[in-house]
């Protein structure tokens, strides 16, 4: 179903990425400032669309604020992370620069608030986060990416005092691992990598799905022996009709000054 690891080229970087897993239990040990400086500098070296540097990251050190993040994410372990970041798509400094150069940021002339720039800035924030996560893993640390912080976008924006032309993207918790979870199965490459064009035969593309379902089911059965978890295809079906009203983006995005209709 999947490519055996022995069929791949191996080096330290590739093995770090192949062994990536989410860590949700951390030892109560602080991360030294040299490591912090290294991780933050690595994030700054990620690719940036048109070199706009349109992202930022807020390091959460206040225990009360960490607890607030855990409440937003509905995950108590977030408050225990020795290092906790919220990555933000951030056109705010660029807007200030443009304004200083005589551009009216309230006018249609100012295009850093358009849907294209929003998407590109979001991409840049994700690339920076992934660079930081990979660097952390390479140093023997554990991480978990926190999309759950977006359960309460309004609260998150308020708690972090995010100004106009910013929007939270993802959180990242980092620490010394206090668990060693199994590697989660990955779907066959044939279901995610295509050649020249998107395949038109859904039945053929999904042919390996039954075997992948079985692998996912086995993974979750071993992880949650007392709490059965659905197979991958059943999880997709459940999520396809989940109530997403609480995750609607239009109002909070507009409140932050962006125009997704342009």
TrEMBL record:
Protein name as catalogued: NADPH-dependent oxidoreductase
Domain Nitroreductase stretches: 18-176
Protein family: Belongs to the flavin oxidoreductase frp family.
GO MF term list: oxidoreductase activity
Pfam families assigned: Nitroreductase
Record keyword Flavoprotein present: yes
Ribonucleoprotein recorded as keyword: no
Entry-linked Gene3D superfamilies: NADH Oxidase
């Amino acid at each position: 179903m999947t490519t055996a690891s022995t069929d791949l080229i191996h080096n330290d970087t590739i093995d770090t990425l192949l062994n990536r897993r989410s860590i949700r239990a951390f030892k109560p040990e602080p991360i030294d400032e040299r490591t912090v400086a290294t991780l933050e500098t690595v994030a700054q070296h990620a690719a940036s669309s048109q070199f706009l540097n349109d992202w930022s990251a807020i390091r959460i050190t206040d225990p009360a604020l960490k607890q607030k993040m855990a409440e937003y994410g509905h995950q108590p372990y977030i408050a225990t992370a020795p290092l906790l970041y919220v990555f933000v798509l951030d056109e705010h400094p660029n807007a200030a620069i443009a304004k200083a150069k005589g551009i009216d940021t309230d006018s249609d002339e100012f295009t850093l608030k358009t849907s294209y720039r929003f998407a590109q800035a979001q991409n840049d924030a994700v690339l920076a986060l992934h660079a930081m996560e990979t660097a952390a893993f390479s140093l023997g640390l554990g991480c978990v990416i926190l999309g759950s912080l977006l359960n309460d976008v309004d609260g998150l924006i308020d708690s972090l005092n995010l100004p106009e032309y910013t929007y939270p993207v993802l959180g990242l918790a980092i620490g010394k691992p206090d668990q060693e979870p199994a590697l989660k199965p990955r779907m066959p490459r044939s279901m995610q990598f295509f050649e020249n064009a998107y395949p038109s035969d859904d039945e053929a593309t999904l042919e390996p799905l039954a075997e992948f379902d079985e692998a996912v089911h086995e993974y979750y059965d071993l992880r949650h022996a007392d709490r059965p978890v659905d197979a991958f295809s059943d999880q997709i079906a459940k999520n396809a009709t989940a109530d997403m009203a609480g995750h609607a983006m239009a109002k909070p995005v507009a409140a932050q000054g962006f125009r997704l209709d342009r």
